Amino acid sequence: MRLPLIKHIVEFVDTHDEDWVVETIELLENLAEAPGIKDEELEVVGELLSNLYGALEVSKDIKGGTDKKEALNGFMKRVMGSIN
């Protein structure tokens, strides 16, 4: 996961609508099941999905009243905590 990408997607959600991101996730998940997809391609799709899901989580926190910077930092701390 990359914080700059998540931040950019959060800004997209703020400007447009969360539904765009949800539909993009659905498309990428479907694409991941395509016959003949290579491992390298699947890794890229997986990374994109991780960033999109992360952005949705951050957006949810922001809508719940958390400051944008706090929401981003809190999300990354949760991610790092789950890795360690």
Give the tags:
84 residues; 4 helices; mainly alpha; globular
List the helices and strands and how they pair.
Layout: H1 3-15, H2 18-32, H3 39-63, H4 68-83
Helix pairs in contact: 1-2, 1-3, 2-3, 3-4
How large is the radius of gyration? 14 Å
Helix content: over 70%
Low-confidence stretches: none
Mean pLDDT: 94
Task: Tell me how many strands there are.
Answer: 0
**Secondary-structure element order, as H and E?**
HHHH
Number of helices: 4
Shape: globular
Specify the structural class.
mainly alpha
Our estimate of the beta-strand percent is under 5%
* End-to-end gap: 15 Å
Brief account:
The protein is mostly helical and 84 residues long. It is built from four helices and no strands.
Structure in words:
By secondary structure, the chain is mainly alpha-helical. It is 82% helix and 0% strand. It is globular and about 45 Å long.
